[in-house]
Amino acid sequence: MRALVTAPGNTATIQDIPVPEPGANEIRIKVHSVALNPVDALYTFNPPAPPGRVVGSDIAGTVDKLGPGVTLWRVGDRVASFLQGATSGNERPGGFAEYAVVEADLAIAIPKEVSFDQAATVPLCSLTAAQALFIRLKIKPPFPSPFTYVPESAQSPTILIYSAMTSLGLFVSELSKLLRTSAGNPYRIFATASPKNLDKLLQLGVEKVFDYRDPEWPRKVRAASGGIHYAVDCISEGDSTANISQTYKEGGGTIACIRKSTWSKDNVREDVIGIYSSVWVGLGKDIIYNNELIPADPSWREFTVEFYRWLSSSTDRFPISPNPVRLMPGGLGRIVADGFTLLGSAKVIDRPMDANTHGSEPWMKPISGEKLVYRA
Question: In this protein, which residues make up the domain named Enoyl reductase (ER) (predicted)?
């Protein structure tokens, strides 16, 4: 089969490799669509292991073969899932290929009104958002969870989504509008984004949007909200976490950070803590990530299973909306040259935003509020 595989020179190329066989409690997926995440590009250009690893995380397609013991699925079912790909120091499978194998209970049923392209945007980033809100920030989710929660004491809790028009930010917004206190009150949602995205975020239930380029935005958020109780830093670069900490209520709290070491600890309020965890913990395997061993955590894997079961609960549509799709031309063979070029391998804030930086083709414009999707 054709697959995107890491190659010498810190890149990846299309190679012919054997079709994988599903083991016990696994399914093989005939991949239709793949969605790109910054981590896919980052570890292709900065590989943590020798060449020869299949790249890619988010996939959608049809069940092609059942491994022994699988009863959840039938051949032909439409599913989405995510794999770790070439991001770890230890061997982990990737998904940017014609076929991929995943554990049966870590797949999501695609509702009939959702396309493969849309479904491919969901698995990794929506799980990251759910982990941020419902594990790290300890907010009660709208689905069963292995974690216990202290009931929310505030009558109208406030949550800030920093960089709400990223793929992650959109999923945090989608999940946040479902949040309710034990008394049934909704959370008040605030966000930072470019002013051009104001209407989109207001439609998602955000109470007020602040321009992230305005140096006064932390003061304005605190004034409008009365003080933030929870926040998700969807960029976690430079002074983003420190600025978010200035919006918190008296007594401080916790910020869920999406990256570990790219944000400065300087000027973070003493009563506010930024916490990080890798989405890969949700796969339930020991992982060598960023040169550190992350041990398997069965409770995080159980959380993934419950979350994906909840996403699969409707036959018509997901309970949260997929990301908007930018369908990229050229299939797997153009991912590195086009998609990874747009994503880059450095900080999001360092991406060039000039419309013609990467050429005049419409699919090469800077990324804003969209997920890059290719068809396998």
Answer: 9-349
